[in-house]
Structure formats: C-alpha cells, structure tokens
C-alpha cells in the first residue's frame, strides 16, 4: 500500500535537490544493531527510516519526526553522520545517529500502511540494503569508516556553503568495493 501524504510541501536546496532527513536508529550506544523499516512502496524490502523535510524544519527535528512516524521509536539524537546525495533522485539526505530509548507498540505507519520494523546487525543491514537501496547502505558504510582507517582515501568533503558534509558516489569510487 502506498503512503498518502496530504498537504506535504516538498523543500529543496539551492541546487534543486529535495531536502530529506533520516536516522540510523541503534538499539544501544554500541551501534551494532540498527533498526530498518519496510518500504511503503515495496513492503518486502527494508529501508532506513527517513523522509522529506517540512518548510522551516531543522534537519535534526525532521529526522526525529520521520523515525517516530515510520519506525515508531523515540530516542537520543546523536551526531550528524553526513549529508548524502542521491543524484538519480535529486535528494540530499541529512543522516543522524539515534540511540533508541522508547519503542511504541503501535505507530502511525504500522496502523495506516502496515509498515514493519526489524533489528539487524550492521553487517546484515548493509547486505540487505545494498540490493535495492545502495544509498542507504552507504550510510552504514560511512558509519563503519568513522570507526576505522580509510587508507588515506577522502570519503567526505565539505561543501563551501555551510560546512556540511556531502558524500557523493565519486568520492567512494576509489575505495574497495567492500567499503563502497
């Protein structure tokens, strides 16, 4: 079942990219188990919860709102992992780390569209996401790179406008496929 979004105003940045926000929701601060949700468009596929930012909404607030709606969780918002660009869909997504502190039994998308959620070990989540949501898999790869050396390859560059981090496919192309 598709998600119906009445009165939703899409917001775009100066380059025409749709502004989105998402969270990697972890069971604990160890960041070894991540929560994925079923896609509203393809219910048998898993995705990282996230969506479009509302006008005047800050990225962190949008990310928290999206995981509450899509995954039915609340938690402690942590660091901004980066801003990920999807050239195909013209999206820029602010991705945060969130440590889950509360799990709702029933939540908006479970009731309205039957969305499911499931905990995955980070390695398993990357494998599941690489098939149909490779940009979402990049979020978790970036998380892993933050914990390990990158062999001198620059994976993240800063954008001159506002010191935000952008990760583009070109920046990961020099890395081994196990890291990309």
UniProtKB/TrEMBL annotation:
Task: Please write the reaction equations for the catalytic activity of this protein.
Answer: diphospho-myo-inositol polyphosphate + H2O = myo-inositol polyphosphate + phosphate
Keyword annotations of the record: Cytoplasm, Hydrolase, Magnesium, Metal-binding, RNA-binding
Instruction: State the residue spans of region: Disordered.
Output: 153-180
GO biological process terms, alphabetically, are: adenosine 5'-(hexahydrogen pentaphosphate) catabolic process; diadenosine hexaphosphate catabolic process; diadenosine pentaphosphate catabolic process; diphosphoinositol polyphosphate metabolic process
Keyword check for Hydrolase, yes or no: yes
User: What does the UniProt entry say about where the protein is found?
Assistant: Cytoplasm
EC numbers for this chain: 3.6.1.52
- Taking the first listed entry, what is the main subcellular location of this protein, grouped into a coarse class? cytoplasm
Q: InterPro entries annotated for this entry?
A: DDP-like_NUDIX, NUDIX_hydrolase-like_dom_sf, NUDIX_hydrolase_CS, NUDIX_hydrolase_dom
Alphabetically, the GO molecular function entries are:
bis(5'-adenosyl)-hexaphosphatase activity; bis(5'-adenosyl)-pentaphosphatase activity; diphosphoinositol-polyphosphate diphosphatase activity; endopolyphosphatase activity; metal ion binding; snoRNA binding
Q: Which GO terms describe its cellular component?
A: cytoplasm; nucleus
Domain called Nudix hydrolase: residue spans: 18-144
Q: What cofactor is this protein dependent on?
A: Mg(2+); Mn(2+)
**Enzyme group, top EC level?**
hydrolase
Which Pfam families does this entry report, sorted A to Z? NUDIX (PF00293)
Which SUPFAM superfamilies is this protein grouped with?
A: Nudix
**Would you identify the family this protein belongs to, as annotated?**
Belongs to the Nudix hydrolase family. DIPP subfamily.
Task: Return the PANTHER family for the record.
Answer: DIPHOSPHOINOSITOL POLYPHOSPHATE PHOSPHOHYDROLASE (PTHR12629), DIPHOSPHOINOSITOL POLYPHOSPHATE PHOSPHOHYDROLASE 2-RELATED (PTHR12629:SF6)
Q: What is this protein called?
A: diphosphoinositol-polyphosphate diphosphatase
The protein's organism comes out as Podarcis muralis (Wall lizard)
Phylogenetic classification of the source organism? Eukaryota, Metazoa, Chordata, Craniata, Vertebrata
């Amino acid at each position: 079942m598709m998600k119906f979004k009445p009165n939703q105003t899409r917001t775009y940045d100066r380059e025409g990219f749709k502004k989105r926000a998402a969270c990697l929701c972890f069971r604990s601060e160890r960041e070894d188990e991540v929560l994925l949700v079923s896609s509203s468009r393809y219910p048998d596929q898993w995705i990282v919860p996230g969506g479009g930012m509302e006008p005047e909404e800050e990225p962190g607030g949008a990310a928290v709102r999206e995981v509450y709606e899509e995954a039915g969780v609340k938690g402690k918002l942590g660091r901004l992992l980066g801003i990920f660009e999807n050239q195909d869909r013209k999206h820029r997504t602010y991705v945060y780390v969130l440590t889950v502190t509360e799990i709702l039994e029933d939540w908006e998308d479970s009731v309205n569209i039957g969305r499911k959620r499931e905990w995955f070990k980070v390695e398993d989540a990357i494998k599941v996401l690489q098939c149909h949501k490779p940009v979402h898999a990049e979020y978790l790869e970036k998380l892993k790179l933050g914990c390990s050396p990158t062999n001198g390859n620059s994976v993240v560059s800063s954008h001159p406008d506002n010191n935000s981090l952008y990760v583009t496919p070109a920046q990961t192309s020099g890395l081994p496929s196990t890291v990309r």
